[in-house]
Amino acid sequence: MENIAERSYANLLCLLYRHGKLGAAYFNSEEQTLNLYEEMCDTKPQYLRSASILREVAPKYLLTFGNLTEEYVKAIVHFIQSANETVVTSDSLELPENVFLTSMNDYSYEVCKTIVQNINVASNHLERSDDAKQELYFHSIINWDHRLSIQALAALYKFIETHSTMFNFQAGSVCIMHINQVTLKNHVLIDNASFKTLKIFCQKSHDAAFKRGEESSSREGLSIYKLFLSSCKSTLGKAHLRNILLCPINQIEELNKRLDFISFVQDPNNSDFISNIHDNVKHLTNLNTLSEILEKIYNARASSSNWKTLYDTMMHIVFINDISKSYRNKNTLLNELNETVTENLYGLQDTINKALDFSVDVRRGRPAIKFGLDDDLDAKLLRRQDISKHVNAAARCALNDLPQFVSECKVVYLPEMGHLVAIKEWEPNCDQSAFQDLGYQVVFSIGGTIHYKTPICVEMDRRLGDINGEIIDHENRILRRLAGFVLKYNRDIREPLRLIALMDCLIAMAKVSQHNNYVKPTLNKDNVQELVKCRHPLMERILTSFEPNDYYSGGSHSHMKIITGPNGSGKSIYLKQVVLVVYLAHIGCYVPAERANIGMVHSIHCCGQSQESAAVRLSSFMIDIAQSSQILHYAAPSSLILLDEFGKSTLAEDGIVLLASFLKKFLSQNEMCPHIIVSTHFAKLATLLPENRYLEYYKTDHAFRDGTFCFLYQISKGTSKSFAFEIASAVLGDDIIQRAKQYYHCLQNNVPMDPQKYQYFKKPT
């Protein structure tokens, strides 16, 4: 899971675990929406479903039920602390500051049902007093069969109401834009260790030590995310790209839809259309800014620039949809965009265009209403223009009444105070009441100017009235009606934005794929993996040349591959490139290979070379054991498992036995064995495993060139030798190497060694 403190959004997640079932709901502060998961099974002790939700939502705050003595709460706290790289001790467990516990006693299902039906949803404009209509509305957007998730949603909303300022709401004024139903049903399960091993994300701290730890100073290193990031044109697309990488899916229909769009982008006949999309995507606001604008509109605090940003966003959405009209028969994603651009969106854009005048420089940032929209408002505006004539005449009359030492005066209008005569002080410490006999009453003095209320001003107030206040009230009534219209159909703005964000990501993937010669994979449900000359997408970018390799698993091929070879021969890179190619196919991207037929996987597990860390206080061996235990719990026949030198962190005798037992467990499943790739230095492993048609041994090839040992970085069938003598000869002398070979020969054949034949120290002559 990416670091919980990494995102600035104050997302709140609520988890409810009871009797092996998990209910979950979260508040997305970027979009200001509530999101409800379906009820799902989650097995202990790893709770992989809960971990997946935590990683995808990346909450700033977490709410769950129970107390610290319960196993589930302990597991969640441990997961959050390890994800944030804080010290975790086994003897004591403290509740993090961003984790909150509540009791089930306050949230029975019937109580929660009532709470949910009373949530203030901006898109719900039905009468609040009509219970039947309200119940029908909430039944249309929520599946009430997921009882645990309903309880989690109710607890989540009550927490937001109680701590509204934490989520940028005004006290007592919590408004949710919409409630969405989300799912994990088609998601590929990947644990946090696998994301790190594969370098899907790789956040680097600032080079300057005093800036490390600051969120704004971090940057992305060499990673899959960085690979596509620079080709995304909008902040909207960059945010959506992260979500795509965090949520690989195994739904073939959706993946083929993405792959077809990449093919569409790479077609030279469509290049002008794609350029037009990119030019418009750059001007779209992200969902976080959109939510802030909608919140200001809801609270009647939106400025003219806020309305202009909202209007421009809708205008570019409509324009992108209009220019795609002639291409819809070529791609289904463009048809989906057309379906999400509803008549309501066209109506919103047209209404804002007719109502607001963005060409006027409005004081205090207030939006200006277009002349001609409302006859009553137009009359008031014309009346205000006539006031200037009355003001000038009143100023001349006032000046004629004043003594000669007052050389100038002016009549000003102030809201709530009406018309006043403003006179500059004619001398220091002058008598402000000097004109009282003329009917001038002092109102206030500021900045060396004295303001008086005169009989002429009183008459102007009576005849002209508080025209500015009337105009502002009239404009506010129009803006409130317009705001209600926008909030009611806010989802009609969000949905096309999500699709356009996806299109921006896929265009970025298409450009990277075309530049690096990626190919479109064929997807299957037959649990068959066939990769021809696949490459590592990151390593090939930093190496001058990269040697591709094949991989076949499932169907008529073996399911388990054990690869042996010396250090530096390319074993680990081969393992990761196979997994990365499969991973890229599950986000709907082209893959670095000559040809790829990829089966849908249930989960991806990477048990790599672990490093000890003070953050978790576990040895490398214990980390390996924990990861392998998780694999045993969650691996399915269609899972993809990577084991990189498992058992290296303990005694060789213990490591090889544990590895053999682990592999035997899966080999015993025969055709139900997952796809497993193992790299190891344990040459004797083959003697501990039974012969099985689902098991094959591979090695890394080498060659001797001019007496030098060279790696070819090719994978072929067979088992490898250790090449210890060849590698040692690079730093040790020939006499030592020869003596080592003699020792080895004697040990292998159980014969005594002749000390006279090989001597380490030569006798002095």
Automatic annotation (TrEMBL):
<feature type="domain" description="DNA mismatch repair proteins mutS family">
    <location>
        <begin position="639"/>
        <end position="655"/>
    </location>
</feature>
<dbReference type="InterPro" id="IPR036187">
    <property type="entry name" value="DNA_mismatch_repair_MutS_sf"/>
</dbReference>
<dbReference type="InterPro" id="IPR027417">
    <property type="entry name" value="P-loop_NTPase"/>
</dbReference>
<dbReference type="GO" id="GO:0006298">
    <property type="term" value="P:mismatch repair"/>
</dbReference>
<dbReference type="GO" id="GO:0140664">
    <property type="term" value="F:ATP-dependent DNA damage sensor activity"/>
</dbReference>
<keyword id="KW-0547">Nucleotide-binding</keyword>
<dbReference type="InterPro" id="IPR011184">
    <property type="entry name" value="DNA_mismatch_repair_Msh2"/>
</dbReference>
<keyword id="KW-0067">ATP-binding</keyword>
<dbReference type="GO" id="GO:0005634">
    <property type="term" value="C:nucleus"/>
</dbReference>
<dbReference type="InterPro" id="IPR007696">
    <property type="entry name" value="DNA_mismatch_repair_MutS_core"/>
</dbReference>
<dbReference type="GO" id="GO:0030983">
    <property type="term" value="F:mismatched DNA binding"/>
</dbReference>
<dbReference type="GO" id="GO:0005524">
    <property type="term" value="F:ATP binding"/>
</dbReference>
<keyword id="KW-0238">DNA-binding</keyword>
<protein>
    <submittedName>
        <fullName>MutS protein homolog 5-like</fullName>
    </submittedName>
</protein>
<dbReference type="Pfam" id="PF05192">
    <property type="entry name" value="MutS_III"/>
</dbReference>
<dbReference type="GO" id="GO:0051026">
    <property type="term" value="P:chiasma assembly"/>
</dbReference>
<dbReference type="InterPro" id="IPR000432">
    <property type="entry name" value="DNA_mismatch_repair_MutS_C"/>
</dbReference>
<dbReference type="Pfam" id="PF00488">
    <property type="entry name" value="MutS_V"/>
</dbReference>
<comment type="similarity">
    <text>Belongs to the DNA mismatch repair MutS family.</text>
</comment>
<dbReference type="InterPro" id="IPR045076">
    <property type="entry name" value="MutS"/>
</dbReference>
